Please model this.
Amino acid sequence: MNRTTLSLIAAAAALAAVTGFAAVNAPAGDEGVAAAKRLPVERTRLLCPEPSTSDLAETTYTAFTPKSEAAGRAGGAALFPVVKQLTDAPQGGKGKAAKPFLTQKEPGKPVSGEESGAEAPTLIGSADGRLAPGWTAQQTTSVSAGAGRGLHGTNCTAPDTDFWFPGASTAKGRNDYVHLMNPDDAAAVVDIELYGPDGALKAEVGESIQIQPRSSVPVLLSTLTPKPHANLTMHVTARSGRVAAAVQSSDEELGGDWLPAAADPAPRLVLPGIPKDATSVRLVAFAPGADDADLKVQLASPTGSITPAGHETLHVKSGMTTAVDLGDVTKGEAGSLVLTPTEDSVPVVAALRVTRGKGAKQETAFIPATAPVGARATVADNRAKGATLSLTAPDKTTRVKVTASPGTEAGEPTSKTYTVKAGTTLAVAPPAPSGLKGSYALTLEPQSDAPVYASRMLEIPENGIPMFTIQSLPDDRGTVEVPKAKQDLEVLQK
Model:
């Protein structure tokens, strides 16, 4: 094989490994490329949005890379503060070097840091070498009083170019901000589209929003449309560059949380981890294509799939947001919502707004439709008390190995394997490291090819309010498909 061929193969492999989420596949019958092989990613980027504008906010950041057998250089991982619309450096004045907020030096052990008040910044981070595969960061913010009081948690997200947010709102008493974060050295240009129950809303100010390099821009959704809407679907697209996007919702009466982007539009959706004591569940769905969607609604309960009375099906008109209140759909048992097409398959996006508590002591969180766990999923910032892991197997019985890492301060790792029966949701207190001090991470590894969906609920009650937050657990992007060249000199030289 000549040097040019080797260079081309190396370039293709490096490109796939750096992206961390792109799969490169050769066409069937290609004479120069064999089947793709999964390899560990070599670099990962994550962005954590500005956590709160409240002086009462207390924020914890946790980062973690699972241990793996992946070879490679030691590498490193760090989260750096940024400021809004900073154009020249991640922090400080023009040309000054940024000081890391949080640094991780080895896989297998989480690290954490804390920030108080409204000055906690947006964080941008990168990991390479052995610390890149599956690198995960979580921010958890407690706000004890005021608008949006409650527990706000979110996984720090990788940059992309397309995001869907069913469940956003511009209703009176609710303030939803979309945080747009640009990790790169060139400016990004972003468009925001809003869809209500009657279709697209005119929002010219949502067009061509410029995000300067290594900076963040918060956009209040109510400034994009003059009329309040209780249930909206927001579509964020980057026409140039790439960004990370997340929505923070604050309600004057119902608290608030982060609304993560939903999984890409698909005919079938799984929304895992409705808590057993949910007092109200609202489903918001949107069909972005040219055709209406008709969906069968099922709840995967601890004992099997059931159809909620009065909500057997859901009709979603093309280009229009549909919302339905499911009430206390779980009836005292944890569950997950599964939406499947009744006839023709039409791509849909969806999310749930979940409420716990009653009267003046209510709190909300969001569960977007999520991708399956895949090869492995990881979530950081689990506590000794108040964590619930939900596992859903909509099709076939499967087993999932759950590993608890050491604690940020002390603790020995442990693992446990759970069996999830077909059509059910298993909600458990996850295993915790012995001798735990601090927080710890969980790693999920399915033991079969049957799809399994997961989420983690973290609850920290305060003053009688059931403060909680829910994070879904898709694949942690630890590996990527890379094409493997055939050793055929004659073909490659042609």
In short: The helical segments are 3-19, 489-493. The longest strand covers residues 174-182.
